[in-house]
Hints:
- The chain is α+β, with helices and mostly antiparallel strands.
- The protein has a single domain (6-138), classed as Heat Shock Protein 90.
- The chain is 32% helix and 26% strand.
- The protein is built from 3 helices and 5 strands.
- It has helices spanning 18-31, 36-58, 109-117; strands spanning 6-12, 64-72, 75-82, 120-125, 131-138.
- A 5-stranded antiparallel sheet has the order 1-2-3-5-4, covered by helices on one side.
- α2 runs antiparallel to α3 (109-117).
Amino acid sequence: MATETSVEMTVPGDVEHLASLRDCVEAFCDRLGQPPNFTMAVMLSADEAATNVVMHGYQQRPGNVHLRVAVIDEDLVVRLTDTAPPYDPTRAPTPDINAPIEERAIGGLGIHLIRNNMDVVAHRVTEAGGNELTLIKRLAAPQGA
């Protein structure tokens, strides 16, 4: 592969800046020659994770979201780091998507979507007391390969 092996960016923890994170993930996947469904799955997962940080972690308090996207071996690794209070989304209960809509809680599908789109979802509390969420997806064969 003759492309960058990683890219990083930090944005303010505000919903108006999330588009630049999505654009960064999309551009990186495109440079790798990944198919649209792969790119969409990774973009959706990164966006859901970053949105959760902004909406539920920072709750309109100041903070940043740091994104790092890298190729490690045969995997695409997306790492989101923040300074919001610790929250481990890997421990969130799985929503009952078969329950009637009127019986379902509002929200709660973002983590479900992340789990279903990524091969690995891991969380750790950083030394600074924030969060590091790692999302891993096995690379697809490049288009035309």
